[in-house]
Batch of 4 targets.
Target 1
Amino acid sequence: MLPFIVAGLTIGSVFALAAVGLVLTYKTSGIFNFAHGALASAAAFGFYWLRDLHGVSWPLAAALVVLVGAPLVGLLLARIADLLAGASLAMKVVAMVGVLLAVQGGLQLLFPPGESRQVASFLPSDSFELFGTPVTVAQLITFAVGVLATAGLTVFLRRSRTGLAMRAVVDDTELLDSMGVAPQRVRRTAWIIGSMMAGASGVLLAPLLPLDATSITFLVVTAFGAAAIGGFSSLPLTYAGGLAIGVGQSLLQKYFVDATGIAGGLASSLPFLVLFGLLVFAPRVRRPSAAEFLRRATRPAWTAPSSVRLAGALVLLGVLVAVPSFGADQMLAWTRFLAYVVLFLALGLLVRTSGQVSLAHVSFMAIGVAAFSHLAVDQGWSWPAALLAAAAIAAPIGALLAVPAIRFPGLYLALATLGFGIALQQMFYAQDFMFGAGAGLTVPRPELAGVSFEGDTGFYYFTLAVTAIVALLVVGITRSRLGRLLRAMSDSPTGLAASGASVNVSRVLVFCLSASIGAVAGVLDGAAQTLVGGDQYQPILSLQLFAVLMIAVGGVPWYAVMAAFGMVVAPAYISTDPSVTYAFMLLFGCSAIAFAVMPPDAGTAPMWLRPLVDRLAVRWPSRRRPPAIPTAAPAPLPAAAAAGGTGLRVEDLTVRFGGLVAVDGVTLDARPGTITGLIGPNGAGKSTVFGACSGLVNRSGGQVLLDDRLLSRFGPAVRARRGLGRTFQQMELFDSGTVRDNVALGCEAGFAGFNPLAHLIASRRQRRLVRQRTDEALAMCGLGELADRQVASLATGQRRMVELARCAAGRYEILLLDEPSSGLDKVETERFGRILTEIVEQRGVGILLVEHDMSLITSICDEVHVLDFGTKIAAGSVGEVVASAAVQAAYLGHSSDAFGPQPEGTRS
Ligand SMILES: Nc1ncnc2c1ncn2[C@@H]1O[C@H](COP(=O)(O)OP(=O)(O)OP(=O)(O)O)[C@@H](O)[C@H]1O
């Protein structure tokens, strides 16, 4: 066993070295370098080129690669990282995936795969005995390089000024500025060191395996597993993680040396299983919201008028129907193009519509085609039955990916999906139930109702029909309730949950749907080729799909058409030479980097195009009714309020954040039909009380009840459905939607709730009720004129009103409004007060109002509670509270001016 441990420690040390460099750059720049393995790969090829092809001595070659080449690459990456400052997480992922593809494509162009290349070992091969086990000097040196580099880096980070600055740079850039240390310089140093570590690991790995760009790139992805063990933060733990993975792999190889089943792939997929497992089972880390993940456009989105879109769709359909007449020699490429349109629609639903991420979508193609082939060929199932079964098999596997999505959206989800894709390939592709070890799988073409689609042209038209159906289905989904929920989830998962819909149900649904549609794409693509093997579904293809999808422009289904054209048809027409594929990979990589560093609005339709298209458009009369001014009786209230519910009761509530007691034994009531103020200086704990009431903040003690029923053990969506609505101090709007969409979701999200079917289908009655309540809420809040404006384009005051209208449209008993008038001027605030009173009168709801504007509090509140340092210091009518000495002391030190308007941040 000892020799395996020694071998494991040696290779583990190389992984650890790479992982430490990765964590360093992530910690200092907040950018996770997906291309870390590609850098190692480039270093290995650089070393090979210098030493093996040009006879440079190994120390000089290693020094040139690690001390000259790698720092230069590090500087380039630092520049890209600078340009990405302030970009969304999605763009950071796109840029780094772009770097990976560019390096990979470039390397494969320079060193075409297929030729056998081997770096001769360069470290001394003499060996000595350690505890009776032979150990080579090469192993010792490799191990020592890892230890020394990590130890040196740790000392550097702890002792040197730049090192200290490096540790602080992510947390507090301004502090660094004030220390006289430029954060940019610090980050640059980190990127240089990180790249050098990737370079060193590439050089050390080079002689250990045949030189191949993809295998080293993915071998170094092992470092991702080690980084996960170190919590993406601790360097010593990351180092230990690298060693542990190395030893674990080595031991698995020993024990499963002859294993042919799944166990045979365990060793190589261990790092990815670790990565996936940690992200699924580890305690939650801070969750970046999906909104952090997606690119946010500041300019309102523009879509061509529907007549132009319809005309465009017909022209496209016409061209596709005519393909056999002008593209007969490229029928395979055109048929695969259609399959890729389906695939991009699947991925787009997930990434572009719902703001999730998947770097494993090629896996669903593989699962789909393998399942289909076994069912149709081995089991003799009919073509449609096998297709539907393949889609159904992919769905629960998609749901599995939703688990990390629920726990860690954003970057960690991207990593988990990448790990999933690689583990699937390593462990399952060669199994008999997938592609097996033989020549591949036969994928038949259909024969339906006596009509054969075996021929290339026939199958093309068949694929065109299926693609059109899938496109209509995806367009339908995006326009349906599920589509609205997914877009809302992408903009603000918190806002959606607080409106009553289970975000997790939406997530699982979209992953299942996307996986199933991906499987259908796999079947179509496989049947186009008729024979497929596992090597066609390499995980790197998933990265390419993601990058191409992100750079494609337009809505559904245009981005899918554009992406599939770029990925399949364009390369096929240029040449069948594999180098064209590599050149396209390089091109996609560079385009992805360029796209990611562009300003957020650059991807939207060009300004000059818009008037042109608008002029071309035929204007159809709008079927949309203008918002009605409510004249009849208001819509029915939730049962509790209608039956004279007792409202919200907060009992002895305590909330702690670590050592800080933010709320300390607070008790208060808010009754339907009344407005209750909750005031207090900044940091008094008001928003925390709201968070605990709506289930977004964990309470440490006490209870929250609505109509005497305990709410405390429920999440935000259930509480909303029980009758607790809220707005947020930092508004949680669905920015990509219109005002009407936002307001409608206030009611519709509650109907969707936790029921997957209700996420998909809205009953007639519900649709009518949503329309009615939306119109009423819009009219009540004076938003009729703005109903079709995109929320992102509105001013703060208007946005606050939209959030209020969203609450007013919901079926709530109590509304928690958190500083709803902040950002409004005096006139707007007075109007706002009148609207609040009207909502209470018309809807019969109760309002608990957190406000700094005392004129608003004194003019509309029936009762006021006052917090200071987390405890309640007074309660009563406005007059009683104004007269309270404790309250005046808490505010402005005995000044009666306390109840003038309070600028934010005022605190004596
Ligand atoms: N997630 C958190 N983690 C740690 N501390 C927190 C967190 N949220 C709030 N706090 C702290 O809890 C205390 C109460 O904060 P809270 O936001 O509830 O006050 P507030 O009365 O709403 O203030 P403001 O009027 O400024 O919004 C503050 O000291 C704040 O720094």
Target 2
Amino acid sequence: MSSQYDAEKQVAICAVRRACGLTSTVFKNLERIKGETLTKDDKSPVTVGDFAAQALVNTILKNAFPDDVIVGEEDSADLRPENASQMRARVAQLANDAITAPLVEGEDAAWGLGPGKEQTETQLLDTVDRGNHQGGVSGRMWTLDPIDGTKGFILGEQYAVCLALIVNGQVKLGVIGCPNLPNSPHPVSLTAQGLAALPDDAKGGIFVGIEGGGAWEHDLQGLNPKPIKVSDSPQNPRVLESREVKHSDKAFNVAVYQRITGTTDGTIPAIPMDSQAKYCALARGDGDLYLRMPVDPKYKEKIWDHAAGNVLVTEAGGKVTDSRGQLLNFGLGRTLGENYGIVGAVKSQHADVVKAVQGALEAKKATAKA
Ligand SMILES: Nc1ncnc2c1ncn2[C@@H]1O[C@H](COP(=O)(O)O)[C@@H](OP(=O)(O)O)[C@H]1O
Ligand SMILES: [Mg+2]
Ligand SMILES: [Mg+2]
Ligand SMILES: [Mg+2]
């Protein structure tokens, strides 16, 4: 289906495809990555793969759409000091290898790609910092998470390259590359060992949601798009949730599930996984609910962690809101503002899920008071 944003879609798929190639190169040598990981001020990890993928994607965006601003997760501050020279050189090598790879069909040398297009270290760091925009409600902007689920990436599990176009606060296009997401019939819940045993051609996809243009799964080459849709809202929904316990309240998810199903034995069909691969699994019907209630209510969710998944799930027949049933607001800046949690579900089931979430919240408050 053609859309107003076809040109952006083509560029974004190309950028995510190349970034998946780059991150897969790093992923294939996870022993080495331990020495190539920094801890950021907020105690979260960042790897050479995150920086290099942001340099690559920003290179493509700045050449293809020079007037567009970018809200990217990473910045180059940790790579600039004298004593970061080894890491800086590795980031530059990874980024330049990906930038200079020969063009494939659909790509354009004018996007800053292909043989001879390498950049200096300084140019690459400046390109990373094109992601420093503060966001906001007006105009066109891209939001980029070069590796979402960095913790999963380091563990050998799920991660995603996530890119979205936001226009006047509305997400128009989302592209998510999931190099490790198992293809049917393999379960998306496979952990590192199971994933490592899967052949390359049994995993990986690039997911595309385009406002008014549907939700699609392409192969990792960005080819062979197939339409995807959410599940048929079963009675006992499979609950997609973060693997990392600090990112969402798992006990709360049990309480919500019990309210939806009437069960009381404390077990739920949870699918813990890192990254926006959860939104892809929901959009493809490999899970039925995505619940993310804050463990730390002061933490503000970042727009790059949700924008692409939001449009993908919506276009696949789902709905994503906060716990009050309000649509997420991508026009507030780099974050989604106050943290009321995130509820993704099949559209026809969404109102009931929000009711269950509200009931569980009331019960939690009552228990806290008692
Ligand atoms: N205390 C917290 N609560 C919720 N999300 C958090 C968090 N600390 C970090 N995150 C975000 O959670 C994202 C991963 O989400 P998930 O748990 O679904 O895999 C991280 O993205 P990165 O891995 O890109 O840094 C990070 O932005
Ligand atoms: Mg991070
Ligand atoms: Mg992220
Ligand atoms: Mg990230």
Target 3
Amino acid sequence: MVFNWFRRQFSHEQAAPSTEEQATTTPPEAEESTEAEIQSDASAEISADYLSFAKAAYKNIQQRQAQSESVAEPAPIESTTDEVISSESSEPEATSTEAIVSETPTDEIEPVVVADEPEPSLKLDSQVENVSEPPVTETESIVTEDEPTASQIEAEVVTEDEPTANETETSLETPAESLPFWARAEAERQARLERLKATAIEEPEPVLATTAETPQIADEASDFNLVFDEGFLWSAEILAAQGRKPEDVSIEEITWLKKLRQGLDKTRRNLVNQIKAIVGQGPLNQAAVLEIEALLLQADVGVEATDYIINALQERIKQEALPPEVAIAYLKEILRGMLERPLTSHNATFAPEKDTLNIWLMTGVNGAGKTTTIGKIAHIAQKSGYNCLIAAADTFRAAAVEQVKIWGSRSGVEVIANPGQNTDPAAVVFDAITAAQSRNIELLLIDTAGRLQNKKNLMDELSKIRRIVDKKAPYAKIESLLVLDATLGQNGLRQAEVFAQAAQLSGVVLTKLDGTAKGGVALAVVQQLNLPIRFIGAGEGVEDLRPFSSYEFVEALLSS
Ligand SMILES: Nc1nc2c(ncn2[C@@H]2O[C@H](COP(=O)(O)OP(=O)(O)OP(=O)(O)O)[C@@H](O)[C@H]2O)c(=O)[nH]1
């Protein structure tokens, strides 16, 4: 059974506790406890429950790792690592391509560099009108030279993929597998805690001890080191609060949540901690609300989103004094509500539909992380069991095509590109759709140019691509995603407005949340563009982009 990363979504009904519940951080489905019990030593019990959940999850992951090492890897670890080293020939290329990209400052987006499209759009349009006409034939299907197989990629990242039912069964020693822990009677729970205490956690094994020899891989692989630290505990708690079972928790999810929280660290320190300090001073009053307003504006949350948050807080404090925990819980509720509001007019889940052609147009200015995002989504798609293909339709810059190819190679996903420079991107798209149709591709990711000379050219090119897609694959599920660099804050939003007009956007990918204090821009994005955030990126590694969860984002933003 393949874990579908795309469908890993927070369910509001199941997981979102009410404000009051959050204030007491009562774990979900704890309704069997009496009020008195909750009042007395609820927090100690909850901590124990979460701790036991985390321990059980930790043990399960450990066992799965041990199993996958012994079953899937007949060769000793050393030889596996050697393989990884030898298959890593593309890594230096990746570095050099990124170096090329970084030579091109984002500022260059602004200057007008008029370069007419090489082919008159009329020619392409006529092709579209007569779909039976053979497409441009120069476009080549580029099969990656290295041809890293899915299993090689797997070897790179040490996954816990495909825990079969049998594996799951055998990996569990605790009775927690059949019932959620919070549903157990007090006596049973105590017994379990005792048992867990007895089976103290072993020190994490240095699974990737040879990482020094493989620097690039080491960076990614080390993300999967299993360490029972504070970050693990927090991540496990977030998963438990969403109704997950310990046996369902994977090291990848834990790693991602840790990364997300770490990525939002600067935002949290600069913005949220100050808000929490204000809220924690006592019941919210008008002066405190004004202080919060100033902080939000400074953190690029934007005027509209700030007004919304402040109004909501003021409305609430008119009705009742808000003690600190309730105020924080209410703030979380406001933020989650804002982030989820666009979902009333867009699909709540964002996953490619199986056994059909899904086409995702990726747009955004150069440097926003578009190519990287395509590579990461392709990786997720492969791992989640979708047939995936990439169209390198950013023909404006040769390096962009090369970069897509490298990412395709890393994910084992084929790339359709045109060997010529400045060729018609719509022709590449046409050929990519033809290839996708003949190969039963389920997800076609289209890279588009981000740096066009002016707004009109950009709009013309994007709408031309869109026309091709609509005409050639009218049955396909089409999404148009804008990749936005979070570090740009409000400036990024101005760019977004241009793309929103040109590309019929259906969602946003927010990249580079790591290392910026402007994580608050996520709120501005949804408020100003009314577009849902579909993915967030918090690092440069292939595993550092995941589907967006408003619950996890807000928890990470406001975690202590
Ligand atoms: N820290 C961090 N860096 C990122 C993230 N996403 C992308 N990057 C980096 O941002 C730089 C630009 O990313 P690209 O994917 O090349 O951006 P692009 O929009 O495709 O730009 P072009 O290739 O010029 O079209 C690269 O160095 C990426 O590694 C992220 O989530 N976090």
Target 4
Amino acid sequence: MISVDIEIKLKAYHGGQLLKVKRQFVSGSVTKIWGPSGSGKTTLLKMIAGLSSPRKGKIIADEITWFDHEQPINLSPQKRHIGFVFQNYALFPNMTVQQHLEYASNDTGWIKRLLQLGQLGNFTTHKPDHLSGGQQQRLAILRALATKPKLLLMDEPFSALDSKMKTLLMEELKPLIKQLGATTIIVSHNLQELEIFDGEVMDFEGLV
Ligand SMILES: Nc1ncnc2c1ncn2[C@@H]1O[C@H](COP(=O)(O)OP(=O)(O)OP(=O)(O)O)[C@@H](O)[C@H]1O
């Protein structure tokens, strides 16, 4: 269970609005986050991942405090053991597909399975600038899964994929996430595309 009770002062949204999020994410569940552009969806993911700090509040994961502004405690992203798919992929320009995955995992069987999942088996020696946008996005997803994270945060993870690839990938991703037992939070502008995942919707409209 991840318990989030935080306040974030959004820097530019209508001149500095306060975003309050109080929510529990049940272990192994999928939550789909939807809301207007600029409402703070990415910012929330970054706060959970430890890449930015809330103004106030607490984040507790399985009884371990990740963030508490009073104590103060702020665990580094490395200690939170999260898989993060960034909206802009954040790939390493000098690493090949294979190196991206080996950087995150030394489980060769798992890497092979991920390459199959993302249909990147024929591109293992390619660096990001020799991959299409959709291939880059798939690599970002595979890299996030490589560490077998218990918490998977995905920010618009399917936006660059054609509908056939999207469906295929999601169909394979669903059992894989279940196998990992990963608590999953997916930000998407298109809730319909996430239909395959059973889970609650968290609506950001009206939160700020
Ligand atoms: N670390 C931060 N602390 C406070 N505010 C931030 C931080 N990072 C970004 N912001 C501001 O928060 C607002 C929301 O940005 P964010 O990227 O979270 O929106 P979003 O809902 O993900 O939007 P989109 O759907 O367009 O991706 C922006 O105005 C941005 O400037």
